[in-house]
Design a protein that fits this description.
22% of the residues lie in helices and 39% in strands. It contains three helices and seven strands; from the N terminus they run ββαβββαβαβ. Strands 1, 2, 3, 4, 5, 6 and 7 form a seven-stranded antiparallel sheet that branches.
């Protein structure tokens, strides 16, 4: 398998360093993303992996890979999930969008079944900074296979404030 990222010993996702992401404030200004959508059943995405593979191929073919992978998702409802994959330039044939805003971030580690608790903890963190969350995005830092290989399954929650 050809590596997308040189520092990815799995040939897929690079190891994730949580330190630059944990309890930080970051600002995105017109950050360019491919936007895609998958169906969900009660907040569980269906076909997520297929959508990522399809978009990764389009990004690679357009030579629009970013130096470090950065993919966000949000849940429009219990029935759909929006996916945003950072790119270095426009990707033909894709829906493009830009995200701007100030975000508080927090890193969580473990199984996705803990998401409800993580969201509660993230809301407490935002309130502790005297801020109010407008919207949350989820950065799944590795695919399930790579998380198993690396022994860590990190998720970063970004709360727009």
């Amino acid at each position: 398998m050809e590596k997308l990222y040189e520092d990815a010993e799995t040939g897929c996702c690079p190891r994730f360093d949580p330190k630059p992401w944990d309890e930080k404030e970051i600002v995105l200004k017109d950050k360019l993303f491919i936007k895609d959508q998958v169906r969900s059943f009660l907040h569980i995405p269906i076909g997520f992996g297929k959508a990522i593979v399809k978009n990764a191929e389009m990004i690679k073919n357009a030579d629009a890979l970013t130096p470090k992978p950065f993919m966000l998702s949000d849940e429009g409802s219990a029935w759909k999930t929006n996916i945003y994959i950072a790119v270095s330039k426009e990707v033909p044939g894709s829906e493009m969008t830009k995200i701007s805003g100030t975000f508080l971030t927090k890193v969580f580690e473990g199984h996705y079944k803990n998401m409800k608790n993580w969201i509660t903890e993230m809301n407490k963190y935002v309130k502790s900074k005297d801020k109010e969350s407008k919207k949350m995005y989820f950065f799944y830092t590795t695919c399930p296979h790579c998380a198993q290989v690396y022994g860590k399954n990190y998720t970063v929650i970004l709360a727009e404030v």
